[in-house]
Amino acid sequence: MKKLYWLLTVNCILFTGASYGEINFSGFTSINAGKVLSGSGVPQYDIPPTFLADYPIVSAYSEDISFKPESLFGLQINADLAEGLSMTGQIVARGANDFDATIEWAYISYEINEHWTIQAGKKRLPLFYYSDFYDVGYAYVWMRPPADNYTWQIFNYNGVNALYSGEIGDWSVMGNLYYGEEDDKENKLLSEFFFKEPTREIWRDMLGGVLQLNKDWFEVRLTHMTYKNERYRKGEQVLFDGETSRTGKFYGVAVNLDFDNLFILTELNRLDLNGNLDTSMITLGYRFDTITPYVTYSQFEEDAEDGEQHDTTSVGVRWDFHSSAAFKVQFDKVNDESFDLAVAGDSESITFGIDLVF
């Protein structure tokens, strides 16, 4: 069964790293730079011209060129303990965090049989199609997955999950059932960008599932999750309509079409949390051997009377100049009509860089 072009490539490279006994090492890095060419900022919140490229870790570009917002280095360690038991850890150092190394993944896996695997520990929250390999820039065509569609402030969880892989007729089937929680003592997106004060974000009782089906050129991924949200600002608990917590429901669908050279990537999500927040993206690209131009449109819209919306149109090129490295350049035009959400205002920006795996 055919998978997406870059996902197949990166999986082959990342999991055939140098082997030392029963321990395998692999890694990835991105050296990126960019700047805002023009922008309005958000005067009511004293935000200067800014392009918020990555919401969860607040990778923001200004009118001065910078290499820090999206540059990163990651190292993954996999220890095979035999008889179906293994351990995986991943450490990432991000320029947005002054390259302070943090443990992003730390979990154990046990293969019950050829179809089922049980895992427990700290993992990436699988809300979106690109969640599991979001940090591996080499794994996708853009500079980063469209920010308007990847807006959420929580992206990891601590818990358990069960993975399934198999086939039904001509279809490849993959599934994931998970349960966990995340207590982010000082959430970066809420603390540094939206509220600009120490904010503790808690997602409890996260219960979700993912179903992915693939046949030849067609792929569809369905996802759903429920959770309970608690929040503290400056140490004081936030009340939601007089309650200390609120229940959120997340729904998502991704449909990808890959016709060898021509490909179409789509994703549509809804967060039901005291109203609806809808996000979506669509990408059209074409592979000319090692050169891949693409165009993307993404947006999020709040279900409110004034219909607040934020959208981004992106045009870029990826050049696979090496079997383990790709150069990318991308232009982003942001239209921000969200006064209350007020992300960063209108802007035009340019980013470029090299993604590689080893």
Q: Overview of this structure, please?
A:
Keywords: Signal. InterPro entries: Porin_dom_sf (IPR023614). Residues 1-21 form the signal peptide. This is Porin domain-containing protein. It comes from Pseudoalteromonas porphyrae. The protein is mainly β. The protein has a single domain, classed as Porin. Helix content is 5%, strand content 59%. The protein has two helices and 20 strands. The chain has helices spanning 5-14, 188-194, and strands at residues 19-20, 23-39, 51-54, 59-61, 72-80, 85-94, 101-111, 116-124, 156-168, 171-184, 199-215, 218-233, 236-237, 246-259, 262-272, 276-286, 291-302, 309-322, 325-336, 347-357. The strands form two sheets. Strands 2-5-6-7-8-9-10-11-12-14-15-16-17-18-19-20 form a 16-stranded antiparallel beta barrel. Strands 3-4 form a two-stranded antiparallel sheet. A hairpin with a 6-residue loop joins strand 6 (85-94) and strand 7 (101-111). The longest helix has 10 residues, at 5-14. The protein is globular and about 60 Å long. The model is unreliable at 1-10 and 12-21 (pLDDT under 50).
In the CATH scheme, the class would be Mainly Beta
| CATH architectural arrangement | Beta Barrel
Question: What is the averaged pLDDT score?
Answer: 91
Quick one: biggest sheet?
Answer: 16 strands, antiparallel, barrel
Beta content comes to over 45%
Q: How many angstroms separate the termini?
A: 26 Å
Structural class: mainly beta
The domain tally reads: 1
Widest sheet: strand order? Answer: 2-5-6-7-8-9-10-11-12-14-15-16-17-18-19-20
CATH superfamily: Porin
Record field, number of beta strands: 20
